[in-house]
Amino acid sequence: MTAVPNMPAFADPDSAARPLHVVAQDSLQAWLDAQPPQWAAWLRDGAFGAGLGELALLPGMDGGAVVGAVVGLGDARARARQRFGLAKSVSALPAGNWEFVGLPAPLATEAALGWLLAQYRFDRYKPANRVWPALKCPDGVDEAQVIAMARGEFLTRDLINTPAQDLGPAELEAAFVALAERHGAAVQVVSGAALETDFPMVHAVGKGSDRAPRIMSLRWGQSGPSLTLVGKGVCFDTGGLNLKPSSGMQLMKKDMGGAATVMGLAQMIMELNLPLRLRVIVPAVENSVSGRAMRPKDILKSRKGLTVEVNDTDAEGRLVLADALAWACEESPEVLISMATLTGAARVAVGPDLAPYYTDDAAMAGALEDGARAGADPVWRLPFHDAYESVIEPGIADLDNAPGYGFAGSITAALFLRRFADHPRYMHFDIYGHTPSDAPARPKGGVGQGARALLLALPQMLGL
């Protein structure tokens, strides 16, 4: 089990540090002209071009030890195309303390956050003893906020990257409890007969596995506006009796990415001690194949009382979220947010780098977009398109979990969830939770999406 996030941090602000000069392509020549001739010649001979993230070490004047470095800022087009470009330099720098010199103030927060995120490695099964270079936090950066965002992201990545053999429902519960204990939060866990009675769709999805299903609730904060986060915790998804092909199962350890992301966001909120009342709900199941597993065409009764025809046992995530959302709405939180690795249709629509989201609240959407820009955490709004409501109504039950419509799969899934959320300030994310190849500050593997955007949007959403 992995429960405690790594602890990224900045260098002591009073410590000595070597300079890391930041130079844009259009100002490279002027910068070189202002440097000692030995450095200018060194960089020209090495064909340093100040491309985004391009790094050159600077030797002492006697040709000895490295006394500094220069990193390229590229141009505006390169920066628009690649987040955290400066973070490419982190792995190539020698250990020790560094500080940016010449970093434009508008880029300082992204650069500082990228530096911390670039140090993440999932080393549980292949330990590494790398000593990373340390950065002095740039002026004007909210150090506590950036550290909290990095620590929350590290927790999310650790959870998603852990294989299902070591992260089933019980282990996810243990990580959930550990998160609560670190911050003095209260936890409630429902399982067994009570789960079958009170959360019948969570039970129906998880009953096919030998690893018992459960639903967890965390509560933190005594005053302020109320926020409830709901995350899909399907620890592994075989597809059930509608069995996935081998290729479709390769990444299914990440099917609890929604739970991991709301847990990472909760870590950020609690570490920063935001003035709100937080609740986090995670239904934790494994969707397995056995004689006990739910069957296609079964009709389930939900916690809310709505009946659901199961037309695909591989559309299980919306079933467990439905009961969780109904539970959340019984307390009428001021803002309700769900996150899930829910549909392949969302990946087809926007790819792996964007977090698509749904809401009927324009003010919430505007706050989120502002937060996404500030947190280098891109999102994209998709519509709760009412014209597709009839698609999710099968005729012999109130709802269909997998309509054979052939179009708009992410939208119809979101509409299904909205039937259970029944909340005017509801927002749903259909995330991917995985970086398919190494990118600056995002090594291949599990990744949080939307959490930083939400953290930075909360003051506006909740009037903090």
UniProtKB/TrEMBL annotation:
Domain called Cytosol aminopeptidase: residue spans: 155-454
Keywords: Aminopeptidase, Hydrolase, Manganese, Protease
Gene Ontology CC: cytoplasm
Record GO biological process: proteolysis
Record-level Gene Ontology MF annotations: manganese ion binding; metalloaminopeptidase activity
InterPro entries: Leucine_aapep/pepB, Macro_dom-like, Peptidase_M17_C, Peptidase_M17_N_1
CDD domains the record matches: Peptidase_M17
Domain called M17 aminopeptidase N-terminal: residue spans: 19-131
Family (UniProt): Belongs to the peptidase M17 family.
Protein name: Leucyl aminopeptidase
Organism: Gemmobacter aquaticus
Lineage, uppermost ranks: Bacteria, Pseudomonadati, Pseudomonadota, Alphaproteobacteria, Rhodobacterales
